[in-house]
PAS domain-containing protein (Tengunoibacter tsumagoiensis), 317 residues
Amino acid sequence: MVEKIVSQSSVSQREQTSKSHGSLDADIIIKNAPDPVFVSDLEGKILSANDAVYELLGFRTDEVLEQSLSRFVSPEETREFTAALREVIERGVIRNTRLNPRSASNEVIPTTLNASALRDPDGKVIGAIGILRDMRELDKARAYSDSLIKNAPDPVFVSDLEGKILQANDAVYELLGFRPDEVLEQSLSRFISPEETREFLAALREVIERGVTRNARLNPRTASNEVIPTTLNASALRDTDGKVIGAIGILRDMRAYEKVVSDLQESKIELQEKILDLEKFEEVVVGRELKMIALEKEIENLKRELEKLSRGQTKWS
């Protein structure tokens, strides 16, 4: 009986030691993580945070720990975070939830939250480990990118890897004659033939493999049912981890170019016809000249014959 109690006591001590080491390891990982990391319970109360959290928000430790996340985000985002916690309980993880905490200097900081479940020794979810990513620089880059797309002189659009149009500039709407709500969230297959849809998806595969595709031919149909010849140059759209998630496409209206090519072809045909006419004219003129030369020779021959006859008659006289 004593041995059993000692054995149970040893097991209990080992479990406590294991829990202590596990907690210590977790604390070390959280403390030294480069991104802001915090631990919350299922009500959103912050139980632990690393230095990067205090640096991001500008608060002291006592102003963060044991505080509800609702102190730092809006009521709407608090509801979204609570919903995210429910998702953590159900799925064990959430990714790329947007949070905009307010710092000690009252600056609103755009971030994304990835969170995984915090479990007790029995595997029950008791909270969440959240990792924040400061999105200020990325949002600036995206805003700059959006500005470039919006103000580009050529039609520019962004699509996902299935060909759904996520973004387009005014030049696209001007080219096709559709309203934004008739273009955005629509598949490109709405505007091009089934064959060209297959070619576009093949171009997307090339974008995934090579990062770019050039001079793919597309002939979208406009709101007025006009078919417009265009060429497509596309480059890869990547997420923050460098994974290709879509394509940025630039269309070039080829109507003016094809009109020039068509006019040149017509001019070439006209020139060829004129050359044929000149050759025929030359053939006629040369033929006439040759006939004149031959006729002159015959006249000369006749003159010589007449002179001979004339001398012969004089001699006989």
Remarks:
- The first strand starts at residue 37 and ends at 41.
